[in-house]
Please model this.
Amino acid sequence: MTLDTRVRWGARHGIAGFLLRQSARRGALDSALSVDPELRAYPFDAYDQIRPQGEFSKGVLARVTARHALVAEVLRSDDFGVARNASNVPRAARAMVAIAGRKKTLSPIEPPSLLAVDPPDHARYRRLVSKIFTVRAVESLRGEIETTATQLLDAMEDRAANGQPVDLVTDYANLLPVTVICQIEGVPLEMRDQFLKWGAAGSVTLDIGIKHDDFVTAENAIIALRDWTYEHFARLRANPGDDMLSQMLMGQEKLPAEERLTDEELAGVAMLLLGAGFETTVNLLGNGVIQLLENPEQLKYLKENPEGWANAVEEVLRYDSPVQRTARIAKHDVTVGETKLTAGTFVITLIGGANRDPAVFTDPHRFDVQRENAKDHLAFSGGIHYCLGAALARMEGEIGLRMLFERYPDLGLAGAPTRRPTQTLRGYARLPMYLRPPQEPYLR
Ligand code: HEM
Model:
C-alpha cells in the first residue's frame, strides 16, 4: 500500500468517518445513519425523526434532508451540481485531496463517471449513451431477459425437486441483471462471476467513511475493471458485435473529432453502465422477494391480477429503495424551501426517507402493491442524473419477480436473510430459500 493511497483514503473517508463517529456519539442521527450498522439495516425510524428537525438538518459534513419535496427540488435543480469542491467538507480533507491528487481509477464517483460530472461534459457523455439506450432498444431486450430468467429458474429445478435450499441472491437475483448487462456490453458470460466480484468490491466507494482495507480492495477492483475495459474496447473495435457497446464505439468514429469522447471518457461511461446495471437491480429483486413473502395477501392479489406487477415494482422501489441516498453541492447561494444554502454547501438527499414521507404517501410504512401514487417515488433520482437504466430496471424487476413466483409459487425462507452492509445501496447479500416447501417445517 502506498502513501498516496493512504492520503486519498484519509481525505475521502478517514477524516469523514472520524467526524461522523464522533458526531453520532453526540447523538446526531444523520451521522449515526452512516456509521451505526443497526440504523443502516433499518434506517426508516431515523428518517422519520430527521424530517421534523427542519428542512435541512445541520449534519457534521452536510445539510441533510429526508423530505420528498426538498429531495425532489435539489435533485431537479440546476443550482446544484456534483463536480465542485464542497465548502462544508473539512478543510483538512480538501487539503489532503489536493496533496494526493486524483488517481485515474475511473471510480463511479469521480470524473469522467456520469455521476460525477456537470454540464457541459455531462450532456456530452449522456447524449452518447442515450442515442444507444433508446426506449426501443431497451424494449427489444424483453425476450432475452425472459429467456435468461427461464434458464436461471431451470438451473435451480434439481434443488427445488430435492427440497434443497438455494441462495436466491447468488443463484438468481445477481445473475439476471449481470447477464443482461453482459449482453448489452458484448461480454462473454464467463465474465459474470468476475464482474460480480469487481462490482461488489467497487460499490462500497459510494459510501462515506469506509475502512482503509475496503478502500484499497475497491481501488484494486476498479483498476482491474478499467484495464479489462480498455482491452475489451480493443476487441470490439477489431471485431464489433451487434451489442450496444459496439454500436457506441462505432458511432464515435463517425463523429467529428471535436465531438468524440476520449477512451478514458468512454471507459468511464461503459464502466458505470456496467456497475449500475447490476449492483442496483439485484437489490430490487431481493427486496421485492422479501416484501412479497412478508405480505402473502399481496402476492395472492398479484397471482390473480398479473397486470399489477408493474405497480408492485414501483412499490418495492418506493418502500425499500435500492439506492437510499445521493448528494449534491450548491453551485451558488440558493434558497430551497425556506432555507438559504450558501455556495459550496454539500447536501445529502435521503431518497429512502423521501420515499417514506407521509406528506406524499399515505401510511408510508405500509407496503401496498396497489398504492395509487407508488410511482411518485424518487428511487431513480431526478433531473439530469435521472437513472439512465430506469426502464431496463423496471422491466428486469417485473420479469424477474413475476417469473420467479409463477415458477415457484411456494418459495419461502430457509434461514435468516443477510443484508449487505452498505449505506447507499440497500439490499440482501444472502437469501436462503426453499423453492418448494420441504417436508419438515422450515425457519421463518
Ligand atoms: C433498481 C435499479 C436501479 C436503481 C434503483 C437505480 C438508481 C439510480 C439513481 C438513484 C441514479 C442517480 C444518482 C444521482 O442522482 O446521484 C442512477 C443513475 C444512473 N443509473 Fe441507475 N438505477 C438502477 C438501475 C440501473 C440500470 C439497470 C442501469 C443501466 C443498465 C443504470 C444506469 C445508470 C446510469 C448510467 C446512471 C447515471 C446517470 C447520470 O448521471 O446521468 N441504472 N441510477
Summary: The first strand starts at residue 57 and ends at 58. The chain has 21 helices and twelve strands. The radius of gyration is 22 Å.
